[in-house]
Design brief:
The protein has 9 helices and 13 strands. A 7-stranded mixed beta sheet has the order 9-8-7-10-11-13-12, with helices on both faces. The chain has a 4-stranded antiparallel beta sheet with strand order 3-4-5-6, covered by helices on one side. Strands 1-2 form a two-stranded antiparallel sheet. β4 and β5 form a beta hairpin. 42% of the residues are buried.
Length: 283
């Protein structure tokens, strides 16, 4: 008998992965958490039936979330990660020795516990002494801070369920306030390809543009996300992601990466025409 995990990407499109076994399942206070073992993608995490990460391609998402802003901002000391309970974003951040503090705000402690137990590839850095975990709503957390963080990474789920509040104008405005005068915010920006995802992407971009003086979008190709074409938002008070890229400084750190490099950095901001038109429509 064959077992398959299937996610509906649209009313007319489904994405399936063959599964060897289900190794974890729980209904937390906020969502259903499942972890599966698969022959092609290794272990993978789903929340409420939606793919969050697989062991095979998570490096693409997490490297692009972290290294793009880190190669621009010259002096990151204090970082806030909102979401990111799988630990992959934190894993990439702790590779920078000059980062002094990483605050992770995750609404669902069960996600972190499950990933530590069953996804050690990503959840391997929570014990780092610079990492502090806060199990609360990121929307409420961010309201309390002003001029505190150099970098905010919004590693959220999709814009419904527990992650819905992390796509609002209020949230982005509070992120702006919580950043220092040269701070950067990066968020996962959904996909431009399917209609519903594209609408969510445009709505988020419009709200970020209204909150930040510099707002750009970049892309990566992640096989297990809807359409495989995924976007990230780069929002800044001061730094331009290409003009202020510090390629040689970043390269001198000798960080071994599998997806990100200093040439790809600028190329990721070169978007297809149809995506540029979508963004211009809401700017």
């Amino acid at each position: 008998m064959e077992l398959w995990f299937t996610e509906k990407h649209t009313e007319n499109v489904k994405f399936s992965i063959q599964v060897d076994k289900q190794i974890y399942s729980s209904q937390s206070e906020f969502q259903r958490i499942d972890i599966f073992e698969s022959p092609e993608f290794g272990r993978f995490l789903t929340l409420d039936g939606y793919m969050m990460l697989t062991e095979k391609d998570e490096f693409i998402y997490h490297e692009m979330m972290v290294h793009v802003p880190m190669a621009v901002h010259p002096n990151v000391k204090k970082v806030l990660v909102i979401g990111g309970g799988d630990g992959g974003t934190v894993r990439e951040l702790i590779r920078y020795p000059f980062i002094e503090e990483i605050d992770l705000v995750e609404i669902d402690e069960e996600v972190v516990d499950a990933c530590i137990r069953y996804l050690p590839q990503t959840a391997c850095s929570f014990q780092d002494k610079r990492v502090k975990c806060f199990y609360e709503d990121g929307l409420k957390y961010i309201r309390k801070y002003e001029n505190v963080y150099d970098l905010i990474l919004v590693d959220s789920t999709d814009p419904f369920g527990p992650g819905e509040g992390l796509f609002t104008k209020e949230f982005y405005g509070n992120c702006f306030k919580a950043l220092k005068e040269d701070g950067i915010m990066v968020n996962q920006h959904e996909s431009p390809f399917y209609k519903e995802d594209a609408y969510a992407m445009q709505r988020a971009h419009k709200r970020i543009v209204e909150s930040f003086p510099i707002s750009k979008v970049y892309q990566a190709h992640i096989p297990t996300y809807p359409s495989g074409h995924w976007l990230f938002g780069f929002a800044s008070k001061k730094y331009h992601p290409i003009e202020d890229q510090r390629a040689e400084e970043w390269k001198s750190l000798n960080l071994k990466t599998r997806y990100y490099n200093e040439q790809l950095h600028a190329g990721a901001f070169a978007l297809p025409n149809y995506v540029e038109e979508m963004l211009e429509h809401v700017e």
